[in-house]
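Box S2. Input/output pair 1.
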Amino acid sequence: MTASDKLIALHNAGYFTDNRWLVQGINMSVARGEIVTLIGPNGGGKSTTVKLALGLLKQSEGQVFRHPKLKIGYMPQKLLIDWSMPIRVNRLMQMSGKASNKQIEAALDRVGVLHLKRQDAQALSGGEMQRVLLARAFLHEPDLLVLDEPVQGVDFKGEILLYNLITEIRDETQCGILMISHDLHVVMASTDKVICLNGHICCQGSPLSLENSPDYARFKGTQFQNSHAVYTHSHNHQHDINDKIIHNIDENGSMKKGQE
C-alpha cells in the first residue's frame, strides 16, 4: 500500500469526554480497494472511531489523516425522515445532493432495484430499503464508502446477498469501504480486515486469521453471547437479486452459465 492509496488513518487516536475515554490508542487505516469492518458491542466505540476518522469529532490524542479532497459516501443505520410525509425512492436518492436522473437510475440498477424508482419509500421491505440506501451512498462515486450496519433489518440470506453486492461494488470502483457492525455472524471472508473494538482495539486481522486467534476467542466470549462463527463464502459464482446463480466461474476465472 502506497501513501497515495491510503484514504484515512488513525495513529494512537483517542477521544475523551465527560471524564472518560470513549476510545483510546486506536491505530487503523483504510486504503483504496480495501474493506475494513469494525465489530464490537454497543457502546464499544465504533461510531466514535468513525467520527474521528471522518473529522466529525476532534481527537483528544493522537493523529488523524484524511486524503486531500476525500469524497465520502455514507449509508446510515437509520434514516431520520418524517415518514408521515410520503416520499418516493427517486426523491430519497436526491436527499444527499443533487443528481441527474441518469445517475439515479444507474445507481438503483446496479443494486437491482431500478423498478422501485417511483415506489413510496415507506412501502419498501427491509432488504429493498438497504439496497436503496446503498445506491444512495455510492451515487456520487465516493473514494470512501462508510456503511453503518448495512444489513440492518435483513434476514441471513439477504445479508449474504448484500455483502456480495458490496464486495462487487468495491471490485468495480476500487473505493475503500469502512463498515460498522455489532453482529459477529455478518463478518464476511470478503472483508479484508476486521477490527475488534471495545474502547480500544482488542484484536485485528483478516476474518480467517482471527477465527483461530486466542485474542479473538477471548473478545468473542467476553463481549458477545450466542455469537456465531465467522461466515466464509467461496464466491465462485454470481447471484441475481433473488439469489439465483446466473454465472459460475471456473478455475481460470472465466464465466460459464450457472444453474441453481
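Box S3. Input/output pair 2.
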Amino acid sequence: MNSHTALATPVGREPARAARTTEQPPARTETTIWTGRPSQIANLGVFVWCGLLCWLVVPILVALWRYLLVRTLRYELSSQRFRVTSGVLSRRTDDLELFRVKDTAFTQTLFQRLFGLGTIAMATSDESSPRISIESIPAGQGKELREQIRNLVEDLRDRKRVREVDYA
C-alpha cells in the first residue's frame, strides 16, 4: 500500500516541500563600512575669537566646550543604517535606516574648500530626522562616501522591495 500511495503523490510537490524546509532566510548581517568624526577645523573661528578674548576666562571654557562637542560626535555608516552618536555629559544615538534616504548632496563652503573639507547632506523620509548631515570631513573621502551611501540605499531598497513615493 505504501508504494501505491507514493505513486499517487505528484512528483513536483515533494521536492518543493523539501526545498522550502531546507532553504535558509537571507542573513541579516550588518557590516560597518565607515566611521569618522568631523574635523576640529570647523571650530577654527570660535577658537580664534576665544584666543583673542582669553583674558576674560569664559571664552576658554567656551572653546573647551566646543572642542568636546566636536570630539564626542561620531558618525558610523553600516550596510543597513547610518548612526550618529553625540554628547559630552550624556549620550544620544540616532539611527537612520538607509532605505529611508531620499537624496544626498555634497557641499563645500569657501572656508571648507580652503581646508579640503566638505559636508554630506541627506534628505530622508524619517520623521525624527528629515535632514541629516556629515559635517567637516575630508573632501575626497566625502565624495566617495556619498557614492557608497547612494549605492547602499539602492541595494537595500531592491532587497527590501521598498520604493519612495511622494504625494504633493
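Caption for Box S3: Residues 1-18 have pLDDT under 50 and may be disordered. The longest strand covers residues 117-124.
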